[in-house]
Write a structure and sequence with these properties.
It comes from Eiseniibacteriota bacterium. The chain is α/β, with parallel strands linked by helices. Helices cover about 60% and strands about 10% of the residues. About 5% of the residues have low confidence.
Length: about 375
């Protein structure tokens, strides 16, 4: 990445809070109705929204990948539609954002940001369905199941597990998973084909306003409980003498994937060290050294966490005696084919099974 681009990204990110407030004020001037939509909380609501967009913009600029920003704006658009907020407000807010950046930042810095904002505005124009109109497409929660079986085409087993959890029957949900194993399904398949899709579905439901935070937390707690049970039901290969450290990068509060992956690596004969969610970079480096890791796996959920991933990779690479391979995964890498390369990782895995296979290939290559 160029120094100029990195500098521009740093300026945008460090000023996100103040610039977000300025953009909110400009938005109210351009479209006064955006203030009345949220009554007394309008300023803070829009400041928070626009500050988040700026952080996302900074990451996209830093990595030179417009799709990172465009796709986050489209994600916001779906949330607007689901919550009956006119989508025109989103396009207008991007215009306000662009004006504020032109006004408050140097021409050089704002010139890096402008093409990304324009790309998002053009995409919104193509995607537009009218202010506040919830179309009949995927994820709008208009299906007969109230959004439960939406765009992910969730199968019957996942729906049964999810329904049991949301009805408050966590024990029944876990027992159902165990029954699948007892009937011949490998626990690996239960995790990949039931638990992982269930977590994705509850996230989609929340985004579409079909579930709330409490329900998401309930599912996560039950899934962690289920993983602890399923982990004991799979056969373990002979110890291969390799150690893997698995963590969600700093800022990533999600850890279902890292716990599941830890089980997969254990089944494959690895010593698996799962550090969980939101691991500070300095502590990650200590863990890599202390456990003598042969492989580091990082989970990155959002594009805004890519900078934390970059810092983590750089920190680990700075240890002379630990030139270990780094494998990454997570939705953050869906917006660019080579994003893992741009942050310095050796490979990107698209599934739990692929991560174990690629991990073995990476350590074999470095032996």
């Amino acid at each position: 990445m160029s120094r100029e681009r990195a500098f521009a990204a740093e300026i945008i990110e460090s000023g996100a809070s103040a610039l977000g407030r300025f953009a909110a004020e400009r938005l109210f001037e351009l479209a006064p109705e955006t203030r009345t939509q949220f009554a007394d909380g309008a300023t803070e609501t829009w400041k928070s929204h626009l500050s988040s967009r700026l952080v996302e913009l900074a990451v996209a600029v830093r990595l030179g990948e417009p799709r990172l920003f465009v796709n986050r704006v489209l994600w916001a658009r779906r949330a607007f539609v689901s919550r009956n907020v006119p989508v025109d407000y989103l396009a207008t807010s991007l215009g306000a954002l662009e004006e504020v950046l032109d006004r408050e930042l140097t021409a050089e810095v704002s010139s890096f940001a402008a093409p990304y904002i324009e790309a998002a505005r053009e995409t919104l124009a193509r995607e537009a369905v009218g202010p506040g109109m919830a179309g009949s497409g995927p994820g709008d929660g208009s299906g007969a199941a109230g959004g439960l079986a939406g765009e992910l085409a969730v199968d019957e087993q996942t729906l049964r597990y999810l329904a049991a959890v949301l009805e408050g029957n966590a024990r029944d949900a876990v027992d159902f998973l165990v029954s699948l194993v007892e009937s011949g399904t490998h626990p690996r398949e239960v995790i990949s084909n039931v638990l992982v899709p269930a977590q994705r579905e509850i996230g989609r439901m929340w985004h579409s306003a079909d579930s709330d935070v409490a329900e998401e937390h309930l599912l996560t707690a039950t899934t962690l409980r289920a993983l602890s049970v399923l982990g004991t039901l799979g056969s373990v290969e002979a110890n291969n003498g390799k150690t893997v450290v698995i963590a969600s990068v700093q800022g990533n509060q999600h850890d279902i994937a890292v716990h599941a992956l830890g089980i997969f690596f254990e089944w494959a004969g690895w010593k698996s060290i799962v550090l969980g969610a939101n691991v500070p970079t300095v502590d990650l480096v200590r863990a890599v050294q202390y456990f003598g890791a042969d492989l580091l796996v990082l989970s990155v959920a959002l594009g805004t966490q890519l900078r934390a991933a970059l810092r983590a990779v750089e920190a680990v690479r700075s240890i002379p005696e630990f030139q270990l391979p780094v494998l990454v995964g997570g939705p953050a890498f869906d917006d660019g084919d080579d994003l893992h390369i741009r942050i310095g990782a050796d490979a990107r895995a698209s599934s739990l099974e692929a991560a174990v296979e690629q991990g073995l290939q990476l350590v074999t290559r470095t032996d």
